[in-house]
Amino acid sequence: MLQVEKQRTRKFELVTTEYLEEHLYRALERRRMPDYVPFLDDGAVHNWLALNHSARFHLAGSLTAFLEQSLPYLAEHFVPELNLVSFGAGDGRKERILLRSLLRIGSPSYYSIDISSPMIDATLNAIADIPVEKTALLAFFEDLPIINRLWCHPALLCLLGNSISTYGVEPSLATVRAGLEPPDLFLFDCRLLTQDAGQLEDAMASPENVRFQTAPLVKRGLEPDAVEFIIRVVAAPTPAGPVRRVDQSVRLVRHAVVTFDHGSVSLYPGDEVVLASTCQYTLDQVRHFIDRSPLAIVEQHVAPARDNAIFMLRTPRRKTNLL
């Protein structure tokens, strides 16, 4: 239940729960589950935090630490009028780091955008003590070009926690470019492809991730032992060369029925339900996609181990013809 200060918090649902439930139902009929679904239910926060804090899944912690290390350089580009717009909700640690930095020079407003109401509530509760006006928007990241009129500019738009590797670097940059105003900044981080690439599969095979990914189906009637969890690694072609994509799915080992308010979906032995995928990019591939986009790099930092990177981008400044 939301416990943040009501006079400082507003929440708008631009996508309804009914729409999301219908979308899942139709997708499951096609043996697919949208990547955002595990974040939707009431147990999502517990399952997600359990995954993030597990010994085998240290991705989130390393990226948060790297953000903190890079902050002095990023903050050189902050202006007093800058507001924070964060896509993707979580434990609030990254938002706290950025808001505290912005508060040193101005009075920012904060906008939390996610498709999951429970995850947004968790983030708002985690930063309830930060004295800024907070607005929550239930919307998709792809809605950015439409909803960017709902916040004040200039804004620091953030896609952190390696989310860009799920959305894809190239389509993410296209979405951002369509919704980024000239005074805005775009900040994203990513986990780079390294020699230890197999660590990602190891983390995905963990009981915490299996529980997180399958929880929406289990809640709706699937018995956990009715499926086997599958991970595949493929070379996905891109304009920057093949990227390493890790696919997740579940294969039915016996008949199951997944029940919704308005109907049910029968799954049969041998059926495979496709879950979320994550891509792993090299540093050169990320830079290649940035160079192909109309966005310009303001700051970029790569961890000494070359396993994490963070980029700050903006729209190119318009040239003025002097007469």
Summarize the structure.
By secondary structure, the chain is an alpha/beta fold.
List the defining traits of the structure above:
323 residues; alpha/beta; Rossmann fold; 2 domains; 8-stranded mixed sheet; 3-stranded antiparallel sheet; 13 strands; 33% helix
Major sheet: arrangement of strands: 1-4-3-2-5-6-13-12
What is the first-to-last residue Cα distance? 61 Å
Quaternary organisation of the protein chains: single chain
| Large-scale geometry | globular
At CATH level 2, the architecture of the largest domain is 3-Layer(aba) Sandwich
Cα-atom radius of gyration: 20 Å
Discrete helix count: 11
Computed structural class = alpha/beta
Average pLDDT confidence is 91
What is the name of the CATH topology of the largest domain? Rossmann fold
CATH superfamily of the largest domain: Vaccinia Virus protein VP39
Most strands sheet: 8 strands, mixed
CATH class of the largest domain: Alpha Beta
Question: How do the helices and strands follow one another from N- to C-terminus?
Answer: EHHHEHEHEHEHHEHHEEEEEHEE
The stretches of 5 or more residues where confidence is low (pLDDT under 50) are 1-7, 319-323
Tally of structural domains: 2
Helix residue percentage: 25-40%
Strand content: 25-35%
Record field, number of beta strands: 13
Task: Walk me through what this model shows.
The chain is of the alpha/beta class and 323 residues long. The protein folds into 2 domains: 220 residues, Vaccinia Virus protein VP39 (Rossmann fold, 3-Layer(aba) Sandwich), CATH 3.40.50; 83 residues, no CATH class. It has 11 helices and 13 strands. The strands form 3 sheets. The protein has an 8-stranded mixed sheet with strand order 1-4-3-2-5-6-13-12, with helices on both faces. It has a 3-stranded antiparallel sheet with strand order 7-8-11. The chain has a two-stranded antiparallel ribbon with strand order 9-10. Helix 2 packs antiparallel against helix 10 and helix 3 runs parallel beside helix 4. It is globular, with a radius of gyration of 20 Å. The chain starts with 8 loop residues before the first strand and ends in a 9-residue tail after the last strand. The relative contact order is 0.16.
